[in-house]
Amino acid sequence: MNIRSVFYKLEHVKLRTVFFVFVASFTGLIISWTTFVTNNYHDSHDFLALTRLRRLLSGPSPRNVVIIVSNRRSGTTFLGKIFSQKQESFYLFEPLLPYTTECNTLKDERVTTLTKFLDCNFSSVYEDYEKALKITGYSDKYSKCMQHTTCFADKNGALLDDYSQLCGNKQNTLGDEYFDPESEECGYPLKPHLLSELCNSASIVAYKIVRVCSLEMLEPLYRHLTMRGHRVFVIHLLRDPRAVLASRLQLGLDGLNKTTFLKETRSLCERYRTNINYANRMNISEKKEIGSYEENVVTDGRYMRIRYEDFVSDAVGVAYKIYDFMDSDLPPEVESWIRSSQVHSGTLIQQAAQRKDKSLREKATQRLGELVHPFGTTRDPNKVLRKWRWFFTFQYIEIVQQECRDVMKELNYDQFHSYKDLLNFSMPSYH
User: Fold this and answer.
1) Alpha helix (H) residue ranges in 342-386
2) What is the pLDDT at residue 395?
3) 89 in Cβ contact with 206 (< 8 Å)
4) Is the pLDDT of residue 49 over 60?
5) Is the pLDDT at 33 greater than 70, yes or no?
6) Residues 20 and 132 grouped into a single domain
7) Quick one: average pLDDT of 335-350?
8) Is there a single domain that holds both residue 119 and residue 168?
9) Domain annotation covers residue 392
10) What was the pLDDT predicted at 149?
């Protein structure tokens, strides 16, 4: 080997070294810049794009995964909003709807599907939904899970906004993208690979689930996602069973009527009982360091039980506790939304009557309508907590109190011993 060839090779190594140093420095500079912008300019139109670029350059990173577990008519829609309102989040409303509320139908399949969705894998969403709908015979007429790719897509407004930015939808007069459902390229059905990309770009993935009947069913899901490096949290939301059943009976949900009331009451209370006992059992095994339980969401300290009544009474305070539980700060946009959603009907009626400006008057009237909507998220805390006591006859109350006595005691719900006590609002229903 002559001197010239040696010199050439040395120069080639130098050039490659300089090139790699330059690429590394430039990438670091871009990551620092996008981090600074996304941390300080959350209102930027390009916030989502900058966040996605930062994550792409940084490589795969662990995320917070939140599963809100509860029962129908327990306040999950409102609780879910404290995650969907957060920037840089990915939230789905009832992704397991095709699997129905029948606990023993497609038991393993629903957990498998949920695991894939929480891992941002939507590649088989059509096949999974089609199989579930075929077996359960559930009507997709109103939820439109197959037609839109996500169930009740209109409940995922923040997701649709982010999807529009990613897909490059039409723009309004302000230059902001908006979701066009009729768009051939960026409308319905939502593209699975774009949903996966949005999900992977999020720092927090949260789903509202009322179709997983037991916490124990989540153990394999928890282990899988934890092994993938994600931090998995389960928020277990529980509401007074009397209020839950009163709401279902009033709306005629789940076929609940006078004939089926006792059966449904027993089923609901057994579900409460099973999950409470499981969580308590895991807590005992952790404290005493006994037993052969594998690690799970409870023993790892990733399980949080919340009473609906506490959340409604102090939504901001509970939201702070939830984010602190996840070692995070409550985002200002989430706190702002919570405060705006907590209104009193008397105030809105007064505003609607006194506002001279037609648009302001219509806005106050619209919010008043949202306040009384059974599936809305605008709430008058005082009325929400006692509305069920007006609706229920004492005969129903006695049935629930008898079947759920141990559950109510565990959750500190107080029993009523007469119809007079039920309507005496100076007597609380919980402590």
Assistant:
1) 345-354, 358-372, 381-384
2) 92
3) yes
4) no
5) no
6) no
7) 68
8) yes
9) no
10) 94
Residue 388 lies in a domain: no
The proportion of the chain whose per-residue pLDDT surpasses 70, expressed as a percent, equals 71
Amino acid identity for residue 418 in this structure: S
Compute the C-alpha angle 149/155/158, nearest 5°. Answer: 90
Within a domain: 123: yes
* 358 Cβ neighbours under 8 A, 6+ residues apart: none
- What is residue 168's predicted lDDT score, i.e. its pLDDT? 75
Structure tokens at 388: 């069920």
Read off the pLDDT of residues 118-143 as tens digits, 9 standing for 90 and up: 999 999 999 999 999 999 998 999 89
- And the tokens for 151? 């169930």
Domain coverage including residue 354:
343-378
d(CA 402, CA 368): 37
Whether residues 142 and 35 fall in one domain: no
123 in the same domain as 101: yes
C-alpha distance from residue 352 to each of 37, 373, 380 (Å): 40, 17, 16
Residue 164: predicted pLDDT: 87
CA distance 6 to 65: 55
Please tell me whether residues 111 and 33 are part of one structural domain.
no
Tokens of 123: 């590649």
Residue 36 has pLDDT above 80, yes or no: no
Measured between alpha carbons, how far is 155 from 95 in angstroms, rounded to an integer? 11
For residues 10, 14, 16, 21, the Cα torsion angle rounded to the nearest 10 degrees is: 160
Q: Looking at the structure, do residues 225 and 357 belong to the same domain, yes or no?
A: no
DSSP 178: -
Does residue 189 have a cis peptide bond before it, meaning omega lies within 30 degrees of 0? yes
Q: Are residues 99 and 184 in the same domain?
A: yes
